[in-house]
Design a protein that fits this description.
Pyrimidine Nucleoside Phosphorylase, Chain A, domain 2; globular; single chain; six-stranded mixed sheet; four-stranded antiparallel sheet; 17 helices; Aldehyde Oxidoreductase, domain 3; 46% helix; 3 domains; alpha/beta
Length: 445
Amino acid sequence: MMAQEVIAKKRDGLELTGDEIGGFISGYVRGEVADYQASAFLMATYIRGMTARETAALTRAMANSGETLDLIAGGIPADAPTLDKHSTGGVGDKTSLIVVPLMAAAGAFVCKMSGRGLGHTGGTLDKLESIPGFRIGLSPDEMVRQVRKIGACLAGQTDTLAPADKKLYSLRDATATVGCLPLIVSSILSKKLAAGAKSFLFDVKVGDGALIRTVEEAEALAHALVDGAVASGRRATAVLSDMDAPLGNAIGNALEIDEAISLLSPSVPDAKKNPRLKEICLTLAGEALSLCGISASPETGRNYAGTLLQSGAGLEKLRDIILAQGGDADVIDNPAKVLPQAPVLLPFVADTAGYIRKISARRVGEIVVRLGGGRERKEDKINPSVGMVLAKSIGGMVQRGDTIAVIHASSVSAAQEAATELRKSVQIGDMMAPPSPLIGNVLRK
């Protein structure tokens, strides 16, 4: 079937066969299907959706579009706890930078293929590339060797591992087709299946700043991910977590690297660490260590992760990862010296006294994208230094003139424009509004 016939069939709401989906995807990878045709297919899928059979077929086609990692053949014991972790994305979400080192420090083997920013959400690869010299483009053999040697890698997709997803991933960002359940499920699972781990941990973000806005949609995604993993012979856990407010204090690539290092550092007092960021990281690490059999339960896993956090073992594992991938490991001890710094810092202050009732995560993410911290078009270059650091959280009390955030920008005009938009994103009122519960349902199979 020709590409346009597949597009037309999906446009008209008809169910595609596995062969039709597989042929379209393989044709796209070979260059026989153009970007504009793939864009039309994505939009038709976004509008019409996919059945469970179609989603499974799309996942298989994407996973099989290239080679897959064989961790056992690479020297990792067959009975070793191999695990992969994925977050569906949110504003200020730097959990992989913290959880992956903690898991590796506990003895898990984590081959983590990460992605770039989508829409208003940041991407782990974009954050890592703010570390001078850090190499995300590891070959499959390099990934396996590094995981065998130090327990973890944080790398991008290669041209040979799930190449269909790599091509479609950036196209989704540029065609407003990010928030589509079948496309999200197939993208996530195809990468996980190609990476070869036995256990998958999914952090499904839900709320204003997430790709998934409602609990019902998030639960549907969690079930689809876990069921798809189990159907492929893997164990899986999905955690629903809140994204109605930015996660942590920092939003922006280099700024989030700095915050991740601070949270992992035992020399930084707890009072200076964002409590919600620490809570979700320990929760995810506990679930991961239980899932892969290192800990007897999520509770004991969480306690173990807390010990590794407090001892600095997680921080040292992050140092190992940075060194192994060519990055400047001095960033661990001197982040302000190593990471790129924005030339303009503009305090954003409260214009009235009261309690902070809302900080719109979605708007904050969009502001950071416009500052240059994300992509509005596929070909856009990212400025790693820009973003903002929140000084106050939802529920916090402010006086007129108190600093709510500091905007990091490339110019005064960009900072001022960001401040104008941020004014629309922050609500201050007379009554305190408690933050949303951080952890929702947990689905384990």
